[in-house]
Write a structure and sequence with these properties.
Strand content: 25-35%
Strand order of the largest sheet: 13-12-9-10-11-14-21-19
Largest sheet: 8 strands, antiparallel
Helix content: 25-40%
Oligomer: single chain
Number of strands: 22
């Protein structure tokens, strides 16, 4: 096992990783920007190093500073969490050059699955269903021909994209040309790669993702699916596991396809295979996230598998602790992402000081967070305050438990999305489970 792990991240995910390392008995190293000097992960880690000023580009994305902190502290492994360095193949390669284990997949696997167009081609060759689409688009003429072949609407996607960035829908030739230009600009800005491709756009499907774990010995398992269909601008709002739209037969097919996908990439570590599910239960590969997911906790709740601990165990060269037949999914879990945002003002970020903070509790309630009363939410990063997760034997019981927990949760001093979720969780369509990715376009507050 590792002697010391540096966490190249911040916020609640850094806290989550530190806790897992503590339970294993591994000392941890936190890195932080000047804005995060008082963040919880800094005080929980065994030791901590400031790696730069407030801006991410000068701190959490500062590779020389992170590597220097690892070398100075004697860390023999780096956990990237999610976001920031988690899907940077170049960073994984640099870690390797310095004899530091990157807790994640190989640079080769990240490059293969990180380029969405290449990943689609690989999946298709392994009999994993993909939506009709193209390779990298070279010019507008090629794009127009593809759109004519598939039929509008189509969606333009950055090959290196993620997190809802570099994605735009086109309903005609004029929108196609305009949105390709905008996608390329956005992709260059966020990912340093302007290349885009086109897919047939499925109108209002379900967004389903399958959690997989794979070791270096060729063993791959899945922990069932999560439903991430309720989104705003391609950003997930609520996740639940399992999906209310997936029956046992479809679940088996999804799991088998996800395992084939991971094996096709020669994958090692934890990852998520994302699919779109249509109304006829047909599913199509969308992309693979080659990292820990924000919503991993609800998969942990229904499977009783500590995903972060397994991720560290795999990276240390050990075989998976489980076989597929050991995985017994039980109950239902729901996650709400609580952000410092004003949902009444188009989810405008609301940084500031939290002057009151009381978390909900009780059986089946989990709160992953890095904040506390007196904590100042900086304006430089994602506005996530916490992930509120609730588990119960049935979906309806989990939903009611979530409503109770949301009403108990007290955060004062800043605007949050708590009132938004309190309303949404009582929405009739959400209660029915018969929603899709178009839910937020028609969502109206309860009267």
């Amino acid at each position: 096992m590792f002697k010391k792990v540096l966490i190249a991240n911040r916020g609640e995910v850094a806290v989550r990783i530190i806790r897992a390392c503590r339970e294993i008995g591994i000392p941890t190293v936190a890195v932080y920007s000047q804005a995060d000097a008082n963040s919880l992960h800094v005080s929980l880690a065994t030791e901590a190093y400031c790696i730069g000023p407030n801006e991410s580009s000068k701190s959490y994305l500062n590779i020389p500073a992170i590597i220097s902190a690892a070398l100075v502290s004697g860390s023999d492994a780096i956990h990237p969490g999610y976001g920031f360095m988690s899907e940077r193949a170049d960073f994984a390669e640099i870690c390797k050059e310095h004899n530091i284990k990157f807790i994640g997949p190989s640079p080769e696997a990240m490059q293969l699955m990180g380029d969405k167009a290449t990943a689609r081609k690989t999946m298709s060759s392994k009999n994993v269903p993909v939506t009709p689409g193209t390779g990298i688009i070279k010019d507008f003429q090629e794009a127009r021909e593809a759109a004519k072949k598939f039929g509008y609407p189509v969606i333009i996607k950055a090959t290196a994209g993620g997190g809802g960035k570099g994605m735009r829908i086109a309903n005609n030739d004029n929108e196609l040309e305009q949105n390709i230009t905008l996608c390329r600009q956005e992709a260059e800005k966020f990912f340093g790669n302007p290349q885009v491709y086109i897919e047939k756009f499925l109108v209002n499907p379900r967004h389903i993702e399958v959690q997989i774990l794979a070791d270096k010995y060729g063993n791959v398992i899945h922990l069932g699916e999560r439903d991430c269909s309720i989104q705003r601008r391609h950003q997930k709002l609520i996740e639940e596991a399992p999906s209310p739209a997936v029956d046992e037969e479809t679940r088996q097919k999804l799991g088998d396809a996800a395992i084939r996908a991971a094996k096709a990439a020669n994958y090692e570590g934890v990852g998520t295979i994302e699919f779109l599910l249509d109304k006829d239960k047909n599913f199509y590969f969308m992309e693979m996230n080659t990292r820990l997911q924000v919503e991993h906790g609800i998969s942990e709740m229904i499977s009783n598998v500590d995903i972060v601990r397994e991720q560290i165990n795999i990276a240390a060269g050990n075989p998976l602790s489980y076989k597929q037949e050991d995985i017994k999914l039980f109950g239902h879990a729901i996650e709400c992402r609580i952000n410092a945002e004003d949902s009444e003002r188009n989810f405008l970020p609301a940084p500031g000081e939290i002057n009151g903070y009381i978390t909900p509790g009780g059986f089946g309630v989990r709160v992953d967070s890095h904040v506390y009363s007196g904590y100042k939410i900086p304006p430089y990063y994602d506005s996530l305050i916490s992930k509120l997760m609730c588990w119960a034997p049935t979906r309806e019981e989990a939903r009611r438990r979530m409503y109770r927990a949301l009403k108990e949760y007290v955060i004062t001093g800043v605007k949050t999305t708590l009132p938004f979720y309190q309303d949404l969780i009582e929405n009739e369509i959400f209660i029915s489970g018969k929603f899709d990715t178009g839910f937020m376009n028609t969502y109206k507050k309860n009267k």
